[in-house]
Design a protein that fits this description.
This protein is an alpha/beta fold. The protein folds into 3 domains: 181 residues, Rossmann fold (3-Layer(aba) Sandwich), CATH 3.40.50.2000; 183 residues, 3-Layer(aba) Sandwich (Rossmann fold), CATH 3.40.50.2000; 84 residues, Immunoglobulin-like (Sandwich). Helix content is 39%, strand content 23%. The protein contains 16 helices and 21 strands. It has a 7-stranded parallel sheet with strand order 3-2-1-4-5-6-7, sandwiched between helices. A 6-stranded mixed sheet has the order 10-9-8-11-12-13, with helices on both faces. The longest helix is centred in the C-terminal third of the chain and has 18 residues. The radius of gyration is 27 Å and the shape is globular.
Length: 480
């Protein structure tokens, strides 16, 4: 099999990247070919070092024709059996490629968002969600949109943990409270705007440990992001220099495992929560959408249901004092910390082993690749023309009008693709619809027109590329 995985991201590293990398590694391990479509950078280098083929794109509409041509050429030489995309910009190009080349399309939804799924569900063969809560969130939305015959497409495929790396092997246990007398609490997350709820709960926890804890405490912040300097400044104000807060930057693989193992308590969302649990540590789970709390015998099902914080209404659902109470439970009872840590590891072993999860994904790939055994007969030139037409239709939606005076109008079209030609026409609507004026094809997406007489009119624009064209009409203009 040959799997194409388009993935768009803003941050250079994170849980999304690990999800894709995990899937790609499993494909390679099982002798399948995999190509990842992503932006150029650190992640590209990591994939290439692991033997994964990469096509780089900016995901800008202007880069899509070139990107599509490269994908179509790849497909003509090494048939792509499945497209397994991720949301937003990557889903958009994946949908175009799937339509033109006739390749089954899978989509993984990681959080509480919609990404136009009501509009696009008919084009998608399977939807994976990382938790039951996210699946329910999407199904409720589709029910309200009165979409039918789609529930069979949804499956829960949680994030997995590489147990070969993230484990609590006794030979790897590093310095802990037993040796230093200091309880190390770690916050593991990206430090970006979309993680603001997590960061705000961390401030509450930091203030509590600065003012109220009878134990010696230090904090370790594992992560990078655009808010880092702001967070450092806020930490200094909260602690007034009385509590150590160490920023160790972004970590991966064994280096990240070591940070988990050096921790006595971990605050983390999603995949990071699972990795910390896999290392046998007590985890307070909180995500960008909600606070779950200490994952223990009483609370673990809520964590599993929500992808450890991926479902909720942020501060609206948060009960004041929750993180402080969870910290009190752990800070004052090492025996219970150890007990919860052992339970956490068992939970990951049972439900979140990466190898088992990836084998399930490969099973879905295999079933659909059998369905897609027949070659989709279309030449590269035909595919390019069809793709350009679909791209034009998806990017160019309407003619904008700006009334300059009683009879003067500016007409314009947003050009996100580039290298387009525009032909402008003015039609009068009356006893007979007739063409009253035109502007030959050129590269201007603006057209200024002065109407010489009364009547009802519409502007028309034909937009074309070398291989495709579409036409649009403006709203009706009534000249008095």
């Amino acid at each position: 099999m040959h799997i194409l995985i388009p993935v768009f991201f803003n941050a250079p590293a994170g849980g999304l990247h690990e999800n894709v990398f995990s899937t790609a590694k499993e494909c390679i391990k099982n002798k399948h070919e995999v190509t990842v479509l992503c932006k150029e950078g650190v992640f590209t280098n990591k994939l290439l070092k692991s033997g994964v083929n990469v096509i780089n794109t900016t995901f800008d509409p202007s880069d899509l024709p070139r990107t599509f041509k490269e994908i179509a050429q790849l497909h003509s030489h090494r048939k792509i059996d499945i497209i397994h995309t991720h949301p937003f910009h990557s889903r958009k190009i994946a949908q175009l490629v799937s339509k033109v080349l006739g390749i089954p399309l899978f989509l993984t939804m990681h959080g509480k968002y919609y990404d136009q799924i009501g509009k696009n569900i008919d084009d998608i063969d399977l939807v994976f969600t990382v938790s039951e809560g996210i699946k329910e969130h999407l199904l409720k939305y589709l029910d309200k949109a009165k979409k039918h015959d789609y529930r069979h497409k949804f499956f829960v495929v949680p994030n997995g943990v590489d147990r070969k790396i993230f484990n609590c092997d006794q030979d790897l246990i590093l310095e802990s409270e037993n040796e230093s007398g200091v309880i190390n609490i770690s916050l593991v997350t990206r430090l970006d705007k979309d993680k603001e709820f997590i960061i705000n709960i961390f401030y509450k926890a930091l203030e509590f440990t600065s003012r109220n804890s009878s134990k010696r405490v230090k904090w370790t912040i594992v992560g990078e992001g655009t808010l880092k300097d702001e967070i450092i400044e806020r930490c200094n104000r909260i602690t007034e220099g009385k509590l150590e807060v160490q920023f160790v930057g972004w970590k991966e693989d064994e280096a990240l495992r070591d940070e988990y193992l050096k921790s006595d308590i971990i605050l983390a969302p999603g995949r990071c929560a699972l990795e910390g649990m896999s290392c046998g540590k007590p985890v307070i789970a909180l995500g960008s959408k909600g606070y779950i709390g200490l994952i223990d015998h009483k609370n673990w099902m809520q964590g599993v249901y929500s992808n450890f914080g991926g479902v909720g209404n942020k501060a609206e659902d948060y009960s004041e004092g929750s993180v402080e109470n969870d910290l009190i439970t752990l800070l004052n009872n090492k025996v219970y910390r150890d007990e919860v840590g052992k339970f956490s590891e068992s939970l990951v072993t049972q439900f979140f082993d990466e190898e088992k999860i990836n084998q399930n994904i490969l099973g879905y790939y295999k079933m659909y690749s059998l369905k897609n055994e027949q070659t989709h007969s279309i030449t590269i030139d035909e595919a390019e023309a069809e793709m350009e037409k679909l791209l034009l239709s998806s990017e160019v939606k309407e003619i904008f009008m700006d009334k300059k005076s009683v009879r003067e109008y500016d007409f314009s079209i947003d050009n996100t693709i580039g290298n387009l030609q525009y032909g402008w026409y003015i039609y009068e609507y009356g006893v007979e619809n007739r063409l009253v004026d035109r502007k030959p094809f050129g590269d201007s997406n603006h057209y200024n027109y002065h109407f010489s007489h009364k009547g009802k009119f519409k502007a028309k624009c034909i937009i074309k590329t070398p291989n495709a064209k579409i036409s649009l009409f403006s709203k009706e203009i009534n000249i008095q």
